[in-house]
Write a structure and sequence with these properties.
The structure is a single chain. By secondary structure, this protein is an alpha+beta fold. It has two domains: about 280 residues, outer membrane lipoprotein receptor (LolB), chain A, CATH 2.50.20; about 110 residues, no CATH class. It is built from nine helices and 19 strands. The strands form two sheets. A 13-stranded mixed beta sheet has the order 1-8-9-10-11-12-2-3-4-5-6-7-13. Helix 2 packs across helix 5. It is globular and about 60 Å long.
Length: about 425
């Protein structure tokens, strides 16, 4: 039975000069986790095997109930995130979603860090003390990025550029209450195995089989392994394995493997975890001397709030902030259900430019690059390009409509044909 051995790595929350980089796992695996969130779970009775550690047998239903009843709100620990979606590299060495410092080369605003977790391996330090206090830091070799939520305040700090982002919600003087920030960065709430597991288990239905597949040791703690498999053949998801703390009912590790096999596309797990109340100083932040402080007021929050026709969160699929531009093109809708849900966005214009477009220059520029990585497909909808990763595929038609989901190419073509 596969095991995940604990890794030493208890780290302190040191002072202001340290680097921080936290970010949205929801954003980290944008459409992939969105589709998983829409998946529905049909409970198939099964029992834990005789793997090590030796734990009492439990059914899948009871294990899910244990997770649902878990009221752990205080913890701290170190999380290792590995993402391998098979994203192509853009000319010049940048990742398919951009990379490096992002938006403006060093801004500490949370949205500038979106997509950084979409590839590679990252180490996070996380801490939580109830719904009003969270802290997540992304550690790098040369820098660190952190987001700190404490009551009605959110701070982001990028040590690499010595830039801080600050957002304070207005107080509710009429009722003497303190408001939470209008939009707490999702990275503070969606970076851990708990959050990803909740997305995969939000609904019940007949599109999924769920079993308990043995036990494991994760971050030094005994855990059951919940195995989730789609029943819908068009899904590109092979399986999801969630290691659930046998005592606390808290997911400790989340592993998503594509149907095509190979390494996990998404692997998020604690290497160390402590369920004691974090020190109050963990959620305090003062910008270091000389740091540039950027205020992120209500206008900033509004600018990055998902919106658009159809509602980005319809049918359980939470649209990542990075899809705001897509929503601006006409709104996002969700076709189908469960693992084969497909997000569709109707754009304006004539779709992607061709690399043969002479107006783009001799080499075709970005258009030529898109032509080189996409496969041309045809159907009763017309023609278009399919762009593929190990998990998420996208079809852009010649009329500018986007179809995207954790489904195979044919499912996208069928959806476009049906919607023509």
């Amino acid at each position: 039975m596969p095991r995940n051995e604990p890794t030493e790595g208890t780290e302190s929350w040191d002072g202001e000069g340290s680097a921080r980089r936290r970010k949205a796992a929801r954003y980290a695996v944008p459409v992939a986790v969105g589709v998983v969130a829409a998946a529905t779970i049909g409970l198939v009775p099964a029992f834990a095997g005789s793997g090590s550690p030796d734990l009492p047998k439990i059914s899948a239903q009871d294990l899910i109930a244990k997770m649902a009843k878990s009221d752990v709100q205080q913890l701290s620990g170190t999380v290792k995130v590995t993402t391998d979606l098979g994203l192509p590299s853009l000319p010049g060495g940048a990742g398919a979603f951009g990379g490096g410092q992002g938006g403006g080369g060093g801004s500490a605003a949370p949205q500038s860090k979106l997509m950084e977790l979409a590839s590679g391996t990252h180490t996070l330090r996380v801490a939580s003390d109830g719904p009003e206090k969270q802290r997540v830091s992304i550690l790098d070799k040369a820098a660190e990025y952190s987001l700190v939520h404490n009551g009605n305040e959110v701070w982001g700090y990028d040590s690499g550029s010595n830039t801080a982002f600050h957002h304070t919600a207005p107080g509710n003087a009429a009722h003497g209450k303190r408001q939470a920030p209008e939009e707490v960065p999702p990275g503070l709430k969606n970076a851990t195995p708990q959050d990803l597991a909740q997305r995969a288990l939000q609904a019940a239905g007949d599109t999924t089989s769920v079993t308990v597949d043995g036990t494991a040791k994760v971050a030094g703690r005994d855990a059951y392994q919940l195995l989730i498999k789609p029943k819908q053949s068009a899904s590109t998801v092979g399986s999801i394995r969630v290691a659930v703390d046998a005592e606390k009912g808290v997911p400790l590790k989340f592993t998503l493997t594509p149907k095509s096999g190979g390494a996990a596309a998404v692997d998020v797990g604690y290497t160390s975890v402590d369920f004691a109340k974090p020190a109050a100083s963990t959620f305090s932040f003062t910008p270091p001397k000389g740091a540039k402080v950027v205020d992120g007021g209500a206008a900033d929050a509004k600018a990055h709030r998902p919106h658009g026709k159809g509602g980005a969160a319809s049918e359980g699929m939470k649209a990542p902030g990075g899809m705001k531009a897509a929503q601006d093109m006409g709104g996002m809708n969700v076709l189908g259900k469960g693992w084969t849900s497909i997000a569709t966005v109707k754009g304006e214009g004539s779709g992607l430019p061709s690399g043969k477009d002479k107006s783009k220059g001799a080499a075709g520029g970005p258009a030529a690059f898109l032509d080189s990585i996409g496969d041309t497909v045809h159907g009763s909808f017309g023609s278009g390009k399919v762009f593929s990763t190990r998990l998420v595929n996208a079809l852009v038609t010649d009329k500018g409509t986007l179809y995207v989901g954790a489904v195979d190419k044919q499912a996208l073509i069928d959806a476009a044909n049906a919607a023509k």
